[in-house]
Recover the amino acids of this structure.
């Protein structure tokens, strides 16, 4: 589970305040206007942004000061999730071992993960030779192997077309369901992900509202969320 | 307190920086101790200071004045060989000085092509030795540099503005006043200052073409105090003068020194609708022909004369070629070992203020460093026995500012683009270097190593200070052949040296570009 206590964080004059809990295995959408602090929130949880005050606990462990890779978090960004000079298999293999010196068993796990996302034939390709959807699949395969208890998604599918995005979200939902991970995903279209999330966190002007059941929030939004959704 | 993701530790870079500072400071201290031994400044020293400043001034002035029309022609014309010529403008950077001098002698020397032509029509011959020879050689090396800098300025004028010019039907004169003159006013002083500073520490050109009270640079005077009089005290005084003159000029000019153009030339000609008259076309063609001839004829003469001389070369030339190869290899390895951690440190430092200091490296004088180190080691070992390692080290130090300039932007880019992703995956330290940084940096690294290797293989500087008759790099050997009037053998050695410098650059650069980094 994720626990955020009295958090104040930010950069360049922007301050984000948050205090909330996300129970183990919950899937949470993070919505809000541009510049409200959605990406900053994920950046803080991931260990990329300064924390001024407060605490972040993952499964009961205080990770406020921990390095990004020592928090039990796997994260996908809007772009740049793959190294363009490494093959797909190498990119995915980084999820097993950052030195890339893989044993035979570990290589088999990489192959299995690629199989799972439907990229078995493209393991030797470079990301540049892949379509946008295939690149997303490769990143998801790596997430599978990282087997972190928490998965953070900062709009990794934003550049894809609607049909492809729906397909990727479905695949993500499967991956999350299989691993039992706690997931938070930033979205600009809460309606699109309503089916696959339990809760919704609304971020507005640096204030993070605690998670509310997504169905209720979207059916009967509070005023600020209603203004954002436009209806 | 969370952090900006810092995937590489900075202490190796700090250690590298400290080593450099210690090496340079040790030379200063040694020089300082020796200065007392001498009795004030003599006329000769002041003459050297004055000539150093005067020749640098005229070299910079003429280079810039010639570069403006050439850059203007290149900026508004596109013709066959355009890209090649722009690339060629970068060539003097890796051209061994002594090879260029030999080429210039073949054109402008007593029996050169120019004097033969002048003699044929009954005109008096021009002499290349002396002050104007020094300036001529400096213009040969720096006019292309000035042209590239100014050409960049032209290319930085947005193409939309030239479209507007065409729409309004402005004449070439108006275009010059409204668009080109403001740009030149910004770019030209920087180009002038850069060339002025570079020419202040000129040694090999002064050694081969200058000399005598009227054409001795400070750098050459250091060498003469050493080799002819073995007066370490005077060499130390001259070294301090060199430091004051070159360092002072670099500091004064620091704010407007442009970054040294070491990147590959970009060949980009926006469509232009002005300057259409045949008179302007002819003018531009004349300037381009002049620049190409000025650059290519000396090189062509080196190749032609060299082919004839290859068979006349004594075996010692091959031996010194081999020496040069391993000195350059050692120097390049050393450079890479220092430059990579140093750049990694600079790339991760918040302000990057240190990189502003890199132009100061241009003012560093190899002979000053050499003098200091000679004074330091001379009581303990025979300096000649360390001539080659010291040459390799000094060469690496001289190439360092360029290497940092080349490596820093892509290094920053890698950290910006992949720092977050790498941190999230736990890629740091050596795996980060191996898996992310080095593969992404490979083209820049190959280019920097190529420059360093070519600079080192063609360098005629510290080695002249230290070497005894048994030891020589190829440029030094070539200088000795010239000194003993074995012109054919020297021409052969020049061709060999030219081939070596180009081959070493090409080898490293091709290695860097061999695999597409994706």
């Amino acid at each position: 589970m994720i626990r955020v206590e009295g958090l104040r964080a930010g950069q360049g004059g922007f301050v984000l305040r948050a205090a909330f809990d996300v129970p183990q295995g919950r899937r949470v959408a993070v919505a809000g206007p541009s510049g409200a602090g959605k990406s900053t929130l994920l950046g803080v949880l991931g260990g990329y942004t300064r924390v001024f005050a407060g605490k972040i606990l993952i499964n009961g462990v205080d990770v406020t000061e921990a390095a990004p890779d020592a928090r039990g978090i796997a994260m996908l960004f809007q772009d740049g999730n793959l190294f363009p000079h490494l093959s797909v298999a190498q990119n995915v293999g980084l999820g097993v071992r950052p030195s890339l010196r893989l044993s035979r068993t570990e290589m088999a796990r990489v192959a299995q993960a690629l199989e799972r996302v439907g990229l078995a034939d493209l393991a030797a390709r470079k990301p540049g030779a892949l379509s946008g959807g295939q690149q997303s699949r490769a990143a998801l395969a790596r997430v599978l192997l990282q087997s972190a208890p928490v998965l953070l998604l900062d709009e990794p599918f934003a550049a894809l077309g609607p049909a492809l995005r729906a397909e990727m979200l479905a695949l993500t939902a499967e991956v999350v369901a299989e691993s039992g991970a706690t997931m938070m995903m930033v979205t600009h279209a809460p309606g699109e992900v309503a089916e696959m999330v339990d809760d919704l966190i609304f971020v507005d002007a640096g204030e993070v509202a605690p998670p509310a059941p997504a169905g209720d929030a979207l059916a009967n939004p509070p005023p600020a969320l209603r203004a954002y959704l436009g209806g | 307190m969370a952090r900006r993701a810092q995937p590489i530790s900075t202490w190796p870079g700090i250690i590298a920086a400290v080593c450099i500072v210690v090496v340079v400071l040790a030379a200063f201290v040694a020089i300082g101790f020796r200065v007392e031994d001498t009795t004030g400044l003599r006329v000769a020293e002041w003459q050297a200071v004055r000539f150093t400043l005067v020749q640098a001034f005229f070299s910079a002035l003429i280079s810039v004045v010639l570069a403006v029309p050439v850059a203007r022609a290149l900026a508004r014309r596109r013709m066959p060989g355009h890209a090649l010529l722009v690339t060629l403008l970068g060539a003097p950077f890796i051209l061994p000085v002594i090879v260029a001098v030999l080429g210039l002698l073949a054109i402008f020397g007593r029996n050169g092509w120019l004097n033969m032509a002048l003699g044929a029509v009954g005109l008096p011959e021009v002499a290349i030795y002396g002050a104007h020879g020094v300036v001529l050689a400096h213009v040969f090396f720096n006019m292309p540099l000035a042209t590239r800098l100014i050409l960049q300025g032209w290319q930085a004028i947005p193409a939309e503005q030239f479209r507007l010019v065409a729409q309004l039907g402005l004449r070439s004169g108006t275009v010059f006043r409204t668009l080109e003159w403001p740009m030149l006013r910004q770019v030209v002083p920087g180009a002038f200052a850069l060339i002025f500073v570079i020419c202040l520490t000129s040694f090999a050109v002064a050694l081969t073409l200058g000399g005598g009270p009227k054409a001795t640079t400070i750098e050459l005077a250091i060498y003469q105090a050493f080799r002819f009089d073995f007066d370490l005290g005077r060499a130390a005084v001259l070294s301090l003068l060199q430091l004051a003159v070159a360092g002072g000029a670099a500091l004064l000019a620091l704010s407007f020194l442009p970054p040294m153009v070491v990147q590959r030339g970009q060949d980009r000609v926006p469509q232009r609708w002005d300057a259409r008259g045949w008179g302007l076309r002819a003018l531009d063609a004349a300037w381009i022909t002049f620049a190409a001839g000025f650059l290519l004829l000396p090189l062509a003469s080196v190749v032609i004369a060299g082919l004839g001389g290859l068979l006349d070369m004594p075996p010692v030339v091959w031996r010194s070629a081999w020496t040069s190869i391993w000195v350059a290899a050692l120097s390049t390895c050393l450079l890479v070992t220092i430059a990579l951690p140093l750049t990694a440190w600079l790339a991760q430092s918040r302000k990057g203020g240190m990189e502003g200091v890199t132009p100061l490296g241009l003012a560093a004088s190899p002979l000053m460093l050499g003098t200091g180190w000679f004074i330091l080691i001379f009581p303990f070992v025979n300096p000649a026995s360390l001539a080659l390692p010291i040459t390799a080290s000094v060469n690496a130090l001289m190439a360092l500012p360029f290497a940092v300039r080349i490596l820093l932007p892509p290094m920053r880019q890698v950290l910006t683009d992949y720092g977050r992703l790498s941190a999230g995956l736990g890629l740091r330290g050596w795996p980060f270097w191996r898996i992310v940084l080095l593969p992404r940096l490979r083209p820049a690294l190959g280019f920097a190593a190529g420059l360093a290797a070519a600079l080192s293989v063609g360098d005629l500087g510290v080695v002249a200070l230290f070497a005894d008759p048994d030891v020589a790099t190829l440029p030094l050997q070539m200088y000795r052949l010239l000194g003993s009037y074995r012109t054919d053998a020297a021409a052969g050695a020049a061709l060999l040296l030219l081939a070596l410098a180009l081959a070493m650059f090409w080898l490293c650069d091709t290695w860097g570009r061999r695999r597409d980094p994706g």
Observations:
- The longest helix of chain B spans residues 387-425.
- Chain B touches chain A at residues 1-5, 417-418, 420-421, 423-428, 431, 435-436, 439-440, 517-518 (CB under 8 Å).
